[in-house]
Amino acid sequence: MQKVLVSPLNDEDADVRLEFGPARAEVAQRAAATAIAARFAAIDATLREAREHPELYLSAAFRGDDAAEFAERSAAADLAVRLRMSESTVRSEALRADVLRGSLPTIWAAFREGDVAPANAQTAADFALSLPEGAARTAFDDALLLAAQTLMPARFRERARRVRDELDGTPAADRHAAAKAQRRVWLENDRDGMCWLTVHLAADDGHRIMARLDATAAHLAGAADERRTTGQLR
Predict the structure, then answer these.
(1) pLDDT 10s digits, 35-90
(2) CB 43: neighbour CB atoms within 10 A?
(3) From CA 184, how far away is CA 189, in angstroms rounded?
(4) What is the C-alpha separation between 80 and 166, in angstroms, rounded?
(5) CB-based contacts of 155-160 (< 8 A; 24+ apart in sequence)
(6) Could you tell me the maximum CA-CA distance found in the chain, to the nearest angstrom?
(7) Which residues, listed in sequence order, are joined to residue 184 by a DSSP beta bridge?
(8) pTM above 0.85?
(9) C-beta of residue 220 within 8 angstroms of C-beta of residue 226
């Protein structure tokens, strides 16, 4: 009996499968964004509840002038254990949710509907924090809604930075001086005995360092017995 080979290109269901896979991925992505937004909102609500009603978290013996602070710490610690997150991450998400909810309502609503990627929502909140509350943040929200819904995180970050700079009335030199004062170095352990050493510093200093690394790596690469990659040489 002669075998009949059916090409996938002639399969009547091929078009359906080709469309179904990406569509399913899109649905999953929206669901994930919605779930993260819900987590942000729940963390924010929990910490606000602790501040406003510390009696729910503390016994009478611990209620004093700093009861709200202690109650918030208790709530953050509880959330960190339940969510398997660090307390700093819990507080960061609460702060971002508070900024989004209170100052960027249209981006917040789109985030909660799954129309804004979590990375873009976080970027919007982080940049908005450096703007004064009120009209500047409202303008920031209005100007970036479409970009937050459509741009990839790297491009959105650049767009958000430009809009934020346009709306901030502080002279550029003063903003740079304030940012430069926050420069720092930190280390994060990685697998297999490796680590990440990260430096946050002024852009002109960073570019000078990179140029020197490039020049040194290019010089070393000229040796006849050199086998290291450019990245290793840098």
Answers:
(1) 999 999 999 999 999 999 888 887 766 666 788 888 899 999 999 999 999 999 99
(2) 26
(3) 17
(4) 37
(5) 156/119, 156/120, 156/123, 157/123, 160/123, 160/124, 160/127
(6) 90
(7) 200
(8) no
(9) yes
Neighbouring C-beta atoms of residue 95, cutoff 10 Å:
17
Task: Tell the burial category of 154 from Cβ atoms under 10 Å away from its Cβ (0-12, 13-18, 19+).
Answer: exposed
Residue 123: burial class (beta carbons within 10 Å; 0-12, 13-18, 19+): buried
Do residues 114 and 31 make contact, with C-beta atoms less than 8 angstroms apart? yes
Cβ 106 vs Cβ 147: under 8 Å: no
Helix H or strand E encompassing 198: strand 195-200
* Amino acid, res. 204: D
DSSP percent split of the chain into helix, strand, coil, nearest 5:
70, 5, 25
Per-residue model confidence as pLDDT tens digits over 124-136: 999 999 898 999 9
DSSP 8-state assignment for residue 64? S
Q: Could you tell me which of 103, 123, 105 has the C-alpha nearest to residue 113?
A: 105
